[in-house]
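Hi there, hope your week has been kind to you so far. Do you reckon you could talk me through the fold, stretch by stretch? Thanks so much in advance, here it is.
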Amino acid sequence: MNKPVPDPRPYHHGDLSRALVDAARRILETQGPTALSLRAVAREAGVSPAAPYHHFKDKDQLLDAVAHEGWTALDAALATARAEAKNARDRLTSIGVAYVCFARDNPALYRVMYDTARDREALPGDMATIDKDSAYCKVRDTLIEAGGVDPKDPIDIELATTAAWCSAHGLAEMSGFKQFAHLKEALGGEEAFFRAIFQHMGLGGLRPKK
């Protein structure tokens, strides 16, 4: 007796956009960005080649949607790290470690997030808007709480936040280097290594008080 053929369309009515973004992430993670196209995403999602065009005019728009999901996920990771830390200084180090771990665990998504943001005049998803509880704002607010910036000087705040962000991004880019294996072993693991690096960098942008 033949088994019933499963429905090839893995999405529910009205949820095609979600299914396409999920399909794009799977392709990115398993095959890399060169394999991504609207046709490939349609095939992965089990829909017709024309279906993605009802939601995304081209591949760039689909990548923007994937990147937006990435920034949302990063924000959640930093929120968890911030909530579990003991004090303001530990919070800054902890969100830095969470950032690097996110990049390590989601390499394809992380790359898309920055590839789509690089040429924009504003940070993606209004990250820096004051009334947004974004990843950027979590870094900024933690710096202010730790007392390393002048809360009345917007330029100082932005420079310090950018310094912290660049520190985390730099470590994320280099964290897998084999040259660091002995340090990871000596410190008891990769995340302990990340934490020690941030502490030696001055907690990712936090300047010593004068």
